[in-house]
Design brief:
By secondary structure, the protein is an all-alpha fold. The protein contains 13 helices and no strands.
């Protein structure tokens, strides 16, 4: 048994004073979390930041009512008891863990916080025999249940159609800069740059296993190189391109995938069967790149297709000519 778990109290063993103290510390934590979300989102999503500030103010009101009740029943000294001191009690994700997640994920986390708090107050109300305490805990459970409605009211106050549209555009831009752009660059590099060595080896040796090993080495090597290059090129602070780790991951993985796509067919022992399948895969890869450019980068489809397919065809032809020479 882990020592930290052994030292935790069971909820059923808490006194009414300790339950109130736990509720007070939980409201303090939730208010602090909402303010951290507001501060985190203020630059890019100022309207949503105001929503979280309003929700933090709601938590402050709950905390004040709980403190007043504690003073009335138990005096000025509030026992120090927090979520982590109670076995099985709901936990909150660290704010730093949410920093690189999208705005919708943060909103979903806030909604889950409200559900957790409602369940706690309902359970706590069942544990108290004091009518005033039971009433307050029941009222707070209802308030937490209504927080979703309250969030909706705050959204109506702060998020009009133009604000929502602006935030959606900002979120889309961040997604494209962090994931799509480096991933697309990696896919293009992996798909096109490995064509020549793979098909040159294939036609020079007509040995499928050797061709596969060359393709695997070229794909993995290019993926590692592209991943580190992307991650080291920009920390994202000034450019707004997001986490260098995420960008490096997207670029590295997609580079490797792009190369492996037409290397894997050479696991087939028959040379011409493997080659025909690899050529079909290359065709699909190039058109997929053109489609991504059109959808996310707003490049006209036929122009993207012409650039990618023509470039890929030239590299493919170079590989075949060199391998056949």
């Amino acid at each position: 048994m882990i020592p930290g778990v052994m030292s935790r109290r069971r909820f059923s063993d808490l006194s009414e004073q300790e339950i109130l103290a736990l509720a007070i510390s939980s409201e303090e934590d939730d208010g602090r979390i909402y303010r951290s979300y507001a501060d985190m989102l203020r630059d890019d999503y100022p309207d949503t930041a105001r929503i979280f500030e309003g929700m933090a103010a709601e938590e402050d009101g709950h905390r004040q009512r709980l403190i007043a009740l504690h003073q009335e029943r138990f005096g000025e000294v509030i026992p120090l008891i927090r979520r982590e001191h109670v076995a099985g009690f709901y936990a909150r994700r660290p704010v730093w863990l949410m920093e690189n997640l999208g705005i919708e994920r943060i909103r979903a986390e806030a909604e889950m916080m409200e559900y957790d708090a409602e369940a706690f107050y309902l359970k706590a109300a069942q544990r108290t025999s004091d009518a005033g305490t039971r009433k307050l805990l029941g009222d707070l459970a209802a308030a937490e249940a209504g927080h979703q409605d309250r969030a909706g009211d705050l959204a109506k106050a702060h998020l009009d159609a133009d604000a929502l549209d602006t935030e959606d555009r900002t979120a889309k831009r961040k997604f494209i800069l962090t994931w799509v752009q480096p991933g697309l660059a990696g896919l293009m590099d992996g798909s096109v740059s490995t064509l020549a060595p793979i098909f040159a080896t294939a036609f020079a040796t007509q040995d499928t296993w050797t061709t596969f090993l060359v393709g695997l080495a070229a794909s993995v090597g290019a993926g590692i190189s592209m991943g580190f290059t992307e991650a080291a090129s920009d920390d994202g602070e000034l450019s707004g391109r997001g986490s260098p780790f995420k960008r490096g991951l997207a670029s590295g993985v997609m580079t490797t995938v792009g190369g492996l796509g037409h290397a894997l067919p050479y696991l087939i022992s028959d040379f011409w069967t493997a080659t025909v399948i690899a050529i079909i895969v290359v065709f699909i890869e190039l058109w997929a790149i053109a489609w991504i450019q059109n959808k996310y980068m707003e490049t006209p489809f036929f122009r993207a297709a012409f650039q990618v397919v023509l470039g890929g065809a030239l590299v493919f032809a170079a590989g075949v000519l060199i391998g056949s020479g």
